[in-house]
Amino acid sequence: MIGIDISAPMIETARGHARARHIENVSFRLGDAQTEHFAPAPEVLLSRFGVMFFDDPVAAFANLRAGAAPGARLACAAWAPLARNEHWRRPLELVEALLGPGAPRQPHASGPLAFDDADYVTAILTQAGWQAPRVEAMEIALHGVSLEEEAAIACFMGPSGALLDEKQASPAQRETIRAAIRAALPAYTSPAANGGVRVPAVIHMITARAA
User: In which element (H, E) is residue 92 found?
Assistant: First the structure.
């Protein structure tokens, strides 16, 4: 099994997790899945919240299909629409209330919500030569360490974090937002059985096969 990522810190983190768990049947390398040549040809291609960042998704998926073994399976996880993900929607609303809305979002622009339209995803997979593309909305529960950490994460990741960066929010404004998000979190989270918090979310599970 080979893991590939364009980010060196992500690769090092993955290697560290593998070492800590004594997983020896996986290797990692720095590379761009949009252009990478895979050898031997993979029979299964998996991505968890990565494909939404392709600059040219049709070209990227065409490259993956060209390098895959006949009949190879593709399975990717991506975020469903913002309206179905309260853990992102509510923090964004709080930032907008303080700083105003951001610039209009270009449909399907590279980013976390690029694949929130199921019809768009199946269309690009079909254009890229994949067979039987399917997008299924799945309800899941994310596991967070604590409400405090979830509030902090919302200030630098996802739509709320992006808007804070766009508005060049001051440290004081960021702290105001963090406190507001922390106060709002209990309305849409619940305690996890093994500690921490459960955060309901909806993702798109994307599957297809190579011809």
Answer: helix 86-99
Structure tokens that stand for 12 in this block: 């090092």
Alpha-carbon gap, residue 54 to 49, rounded angstroms: 11
DSSP-assigned beta bridge partners for residue 77: 48, 205
Which tokens in the block code for residue 50? Answer: 């990565």
pLDDT in tens, 75-96: 999 999 999 999 999 999 999 9
Q: Does residue 63 sit in helix, strand or coil?
A: helix
DSSP calls for 5-18? ES-HHHHHHHHHHH
Q: Are 189 and 147 spatial neighbours (Cβ–Cβ below 8 Å)?
A: yes
Among positive and negative, which fits the CA dihedral 160, 165, 171, 173? negative
Full-model pTM:
0.89
Do the Cβ atoms of 209 and 71 come closer than 8 Å? yes
CA distance 6 to 8: 7
